Amino acid sequence: MSLLESAKAIITNSLKIRKGEVVLILTDTNKESIAKAFQEAAEDAGAHTILMEITPTDYHGEEPPEIITRAMGQADAIIAPTTYSITHTKARAKATDKGARVISLPGITPGIMNSGSISADYAAIARDMYKVSRKLRGGKEIEILTPRGTNLTLSIRGREWIRDSGLAHRKGGFTNLPAGELFIAVNERSTNGTVVIDGSFGEPIEKPVKMRILKGEIKRITNANFLRKKFKTHGKRSMTMGKFGIGMNPQAKPKGELLEAEKALGTVNIGFGNNASFGGKISLGFSIEGVITQPTVLMDGKPVIEAGKLVI
Questions:
Q1: pTM tops 0.85, yes or no
Q2: Domains in the chain with CATH codes
């Protein structure tokens, strides 16, 4: 499947572009070929299409320039093939508040564009996510265990689950592609224990990253010099755990680019930094996430995942 064919499938199935709509393609200089495929696909669908290209931002969650924010607020739909994610930015939140439908594709590559994960049956995934989220509703405490040494507890009391289903058909809808993640803002000072990230950690990793977390904050990191630099740049608040997610896309692979890895069925992920855009209290222009494979997850003592298999 060519880039154009993939782009057409996405705007038809995930976004449902309508003739005459104003579609903003937001991209950076690293993703030109993918952005142009989306531009052509949107034009072929009869949309008034605008392509805006910037130099890449420096990290996930960094706010785009103000001129981009203003343009986002005037679009009917936004497609964002970018190096780093705009999903958890104020600019995206303002745009969806005004009714824009948003597809974010941070770290997208031609390989992922043509993979099974991005062309998964999102209607089926959406149905499964709805069923699982109903069973998780009202949960208070999560425990994560893995053979590699993860033993982590965290609180989600009073927080709401978010479904990233791959569908953005209604006003104000947004999704990341590949999609298929059920996630929640963690109570920021509740996480305690040890975690071993063995999938992806913001980027592909060669060795598992081990961390000790106390009262929500990272106290020790092993095998992750690149992380130390990021956390030093963004300050102590960026080292606070703010997110827990469950992958539900059966076509996604758990290792490699985070965009795909965090959606892989049978994995979970944890995030540090900003969570204010989905119900938390950390308002920070930075976030980073790590994927854990083969987890066993308990909610309030009852199994949710056993050795990488959903059991609810």
A1: yes
A2: 3-113 (3.40.1830.10), 122-310 (no CATH)
